[in-house]
Write a structure and sequence with these properties.
TIM Barrel, 9 helices
Length: 221
């Protein structure tokens, strides 16, 4: 079955967040905690409420250095995300360049998405495959590669990664020229793709209804 990760609209209180998730029938959600603006207690409450309803949660606290809003200490970030695993989060998402990545991989015991983002362009294939391979060797549950598409060919560079290690790599492109890769990634081997329940939280991200309509037109739903 095709799987999508619903990205929650910013600043929704935990109870409202749960209502929106249930309304859309989502089974996997990404909580962008840097955008939601939750306290640690609110984040724990949201994760617990969703887990109790059988929803798998990916907890993300994206750093400003990586296009997010978090600017606090690395130690505090890691402690927050590890604590959410104790509250039954499914996975946490940490950047490939996160200074405490190896410590996180050891302490999270195989429950980390290691992500690489390039908002400028799409590097050469050998670079992308090198990054993804290193992430998996170091213990990532899933390697996530996201780059900016400047041309249509960038979609094919990224989509090939999903087929290389099926179920272990999520790779797609940002921007209008990369929307195709977001739709096709799970058809080629990615374990899931991302779509927003409200305003997109990344360049070129599809709203959930757009993604589902594309899959229907392709005949895979």
């Amino acid at each position: 079955m095709l799987e999508k990760v619903a990205c929650i609209p910013p600043r929704a209180p935990p109870e409202e967040l749960v209502r929106v998730v249930e309304q859309h029938g989502c089974r996997v959600v990404e909580l962008r905690l840097d955008l939601l603006g939750y306290t640690r207690e609110e984040a724990e409450k949201a994760v617990t409420l969703l887990a109790e309803r059988g929803v798998r949660v990916i907890a993300t606290l994206r750093d400003k250095r990586e296009g997010g809003e978090y600017s606090g200490p690395d130690e505090e970030k890691l402690a927050t995300l590890l604590g959410l695993l104790d509250k039954r989060a499914w996975l946490i998402d940490l950047e490939y360049r996160f200074p405490l990545l190896d410590k996180a991989l050891q302490e999270a015991r195989g429950r980390v998405i290691v992500s690489y983002h390039d908002y400028r362009w799409t590097p050469a294939p050998e670079v992308l495959y090198s990054y993804a391979g290193d992430m998996i060797r170091r213990g990532a549950a899933i390697a996530k590669i996201v780059t900016m598409a400047r041309r249509l060919a960038d979609n094919w560079r990224l989509l090939g990664l999903n087929a290389w290690r099926k179920g272990r790599i999520v790779a797609f492109a940002m921007g209008k020229k990369g929307r195709l890769s977001r739709i096709l990634a799970p058809l080629i081997g990615a374990p899931f793709t991302y779509a927003s329940l409200g305003e997109p939280v990344a360049p070129g991200q599809l709203v959930l209804r757009e993604l589902l309509e594309a899959w229907r037109l392709l005949g895979v739903l």
